[in-house]
């Protein structure tokens, strides 16, 4: 099975020169096989103002925060934008506006709670637990190289978590979409867990890796089809399946999810359905403000960055973002909100990787950074699209995307590669925003090395000492793909350490966690905008994937 390790350790691939030759292709591909290249440089339209429902829920979120009187760090704003309406928007909004308020605008706790009970369903009631059709308590051939009974029993318990995390949108969401921020999806979803009641984009890759180990191929395919449905509707996969996430995406891993499911099923129809949607998603990442041109040595290179279409407080974190921007001059707040939302698009929300001052979120500069990993993801996406097109007989498209991939490799080597560090580094654009950009070697991120997996001790949740399953998994697989004994040994060592801390934390807490404290084996991580979460989709997927890859000998104890 193809892995993501390629993104971070090895970017070597043969040069491919596109030709004008074409091969016969399925009729279903004829409509897009002759499409022009993605619009590299087209201007993107800004996203519209938040809809009426989201606007109302933001007001309710703010009122809840004001009414509660709690410290901002103790208030979780997300549940309030997940509330389904019992009645129509206008009726609910009128009732909210009519609530009695004191002289300072606050609503009493009793009045506010009564209003919520009368006009709203509970957060999460619009998505229900669903029994996966392909779940078995102990799948055939499950983890045949795990010989330690304690480890095997734990793995079966992790496998059983799919029963808790598989959900299905209730019919009311389809009947009254104007009363829900949840986006209806055609197939069961696998959610991360806890406060994250909806499917998330890049989380789903590691969920799928785990589902395939669990022989839950139909569920894995359904997850992919859901994301394809979102991308077909919106033109891209949103951060998550909520309307308030439609202003940003997450790291573009959909093509790799398709690859994983195709490798398990050889489903040609899946490729036929996915290919035009993936090309459309690719266009979004390589056009408008996502795409940046940088000149070096008389040649212009094109690379991509995270850039949310949003310069306001995030609806799901409205009160938090207002607080962060409180002491920022008003004319600078839209840029700060844009950089906050763009950091969320990166999946690393938040890390000092994106900040000038690692202790101040107000110094986020996400949109000024060309990330090494995003461009590696897109490099992989270009290769996947080229492969899918070739399988389907669309030679022109395959050659075209092979050429795009070659151009990105050249650009990454020219702009991101550091001979001194022997690494691809993030590249910081100048603050003045003057274009065209001209390469400046001092703009390579030599000091803040988060993208190179050097620990940052700055207190953000994507900084040390927190360890996250997806980053561990990519490094582990990347080292294994080097094909060298030293890389393989280090890969296995990191995998065993990661599995051990997951195992010991599970024994202490009875839960799988979103993140772990890598300095204290057996402890979960902390920090961030919310309390530590459990469940947990991608952590489960990585545990199962690693155990499937490296096994576990009978005489190697995890508990010691």
What would you note in describing this structure?
It catalyses: alpha,alpha-trehalose + H2O = alpha-D-glucose + beta-D-glucose. This protein is mainly α. The protein has three domains: 9-47 and 251-448, Alpha/alpha barrel (Glycosyltransferase), CATH 1.50.10; 50-82 and 86-119, no CATH class; 143-246 and 465-560, Alpha/alpha barrel (Glycosyltransferase). It has 19 helices and twelve strands. Strands 1-2-3 form a three-stranded antiparallel sheet. Helix 9 (203-213) runs parallel beside helix 11.
Give the helix proportion (percent range).
40-55%
Proportion of residues in β-strands: 5-15%
Q: How many β-strand runs?
A: 12
The span between the termini is: 32 Å
CATH fold category name of the largest domain: Glycosyltransferase
The number of distinct helices, counting runs of at least 4 residues, comes to 19
Q: Label the overall shape.
A: globular
* CATH class category label of the largest domain: Mainly Alpha
| C-alpha Rg (nearest Å) | 24 Å
Keywords:
single chain, 560 residues, mainly alpha, Glycosyltransferase, three-stranded antiparallel β-sheet, three-stranded mixed β-sheet, 12 strands, globular, disordered N terminus, 6hp_glycosidase-like_sf
Short description:
Belongs to the glycosyl hydrolase 37 family. By secondary structure, the chain is mainly α.
Give the SSE map.
Elements: H1 30-33, H2 52-68, H3 78-81, H4 89-97, H5 109-119, E1 127-129, H6 149-160, H7 162-165, E2 166-169, H8 171-175, E3 189-190, H9 203-213, H10 217-234, H11 254-265, H12 268-285, E4 291-296, E5 299-304, H13 318-324, H14 333-346, E6 369-370, H15 372-391, H16 395-415, E7 417-418, E8 423-424, E9 427-428, E10 437-438, E11 466-468, H17 469-481, H18 485-509, E12 515-517, H19 537-550
Helix pairs in contact: 9-10, 9-11, 9-19, 10-11, 10-12, 11-12, 11-15, 12-15, 15-16, 17-18, 18-19
């Amino acid at each position: 099975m193809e892995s993501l390790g390629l993104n971070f350790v090895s970017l070597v691939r043969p040069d491919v020169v596109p030709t004008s030759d074409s091969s016969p292709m399925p009729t279903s591909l004829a409509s897009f096989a002759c499409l022009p290249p993605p619009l590299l440089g087209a201007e993107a339209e800004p996203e519209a103002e938040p809809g009426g429902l989201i606007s109302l829920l933001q007001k309710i979120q703010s009122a809840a925060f004001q009414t509660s009187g709690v410290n901002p760090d103790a208030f979780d704003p997300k549940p309030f934008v997940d509330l389904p309406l019992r009645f129509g928007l206008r009726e609910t909004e009128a009732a909210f506006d009519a609530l009695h308020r004191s002289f300072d605008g606050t609503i009493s706790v009793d009045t506010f709670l009564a209003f919520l009970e009368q006009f709203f369903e509970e957060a999460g009631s619009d998505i229900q637990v669903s029994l996966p059709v392909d779940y078995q308590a102990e799948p055939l051939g499950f983890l045949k190289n795990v010989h330690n009974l304690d480890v095997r029993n734990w793995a079966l318990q992790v496998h059983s978590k799919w029963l808790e995390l598989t959900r299905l949108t209730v019919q009311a969401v389809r009947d009254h979409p104007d009363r829900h921020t949840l986006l209806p999806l055609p197939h069961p979803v696998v959610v991360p867990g806890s406060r994250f009641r909806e499917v998330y984009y890049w989380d789903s890759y590691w969920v799928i890796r785990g589902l395939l180990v669990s022989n839950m191929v139909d569920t894995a395919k359904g997850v992919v089809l859901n994301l394809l449905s979102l991308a077909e509707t919106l033109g891209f996969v949103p951060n998550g399946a909520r309307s308030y996430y439609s202003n940003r995406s997450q790291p573009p891993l959909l093509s790799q999810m398709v690859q994983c499911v195709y490798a398990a099923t050889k489903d040609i129809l899946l490729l036929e359905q996915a290919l035009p949607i993936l090309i459309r998603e690719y266009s979004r990442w390589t056009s408008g403000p996502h795409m940046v041109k940088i000149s070096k040595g008389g040649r212009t290179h094109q690379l991509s960055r995270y850039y949310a279409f949003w310069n306001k407080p995030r609806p799901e974190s409205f009160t938090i973002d207002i607080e962060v921007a409180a002491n920022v001059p008003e004319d600078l707040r839209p840029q700060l909100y844009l950089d906050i939302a763009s950091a969320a698009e990166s999946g690393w929300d938040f890390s000092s990787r994106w900040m000038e001052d690692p202790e101040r979120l107000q110094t986020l500069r996400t949109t000024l950074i060309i990330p090494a990993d995003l461009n590696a993801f897109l490099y992989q996406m270009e290769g996947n699209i080229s492969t899918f097109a070739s399988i389907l007989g669309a030679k022109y498209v395959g050659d075209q995307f092979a050429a795009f991939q070659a151009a990105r490799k050249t650009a990454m080597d020219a702009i991101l590669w550091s001979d001194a560090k022997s690494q691809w580094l993030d590249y910081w654009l100048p603050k003045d925003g003057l274009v065209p950009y001209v390469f400046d070697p001092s703009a390579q991120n030599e000091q803040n090395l988060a993208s190179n997996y050097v620990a940052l001790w700055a207190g953000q949740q994507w900084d040390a000492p927190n360890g996250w399953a997806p980053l561990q998994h990519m490094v582990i697989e990347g080292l294994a793909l080097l094909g060298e004994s030293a890389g393989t040994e280090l890969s296995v060592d990191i995998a065993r350490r990661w599995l051990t801390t997951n195992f010991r934390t599970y024994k202490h807490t009875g839960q799988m966690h979103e993140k772990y404290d890598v300095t204290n084996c057996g402890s979960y991580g902390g920090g961030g905008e919310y309390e530590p979460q459990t469940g947990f989709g991608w952590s489960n997927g990585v545990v199962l994937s690693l155990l499937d890859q490296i096994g576990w000998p009978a005489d190697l104890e995890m508990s010691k």
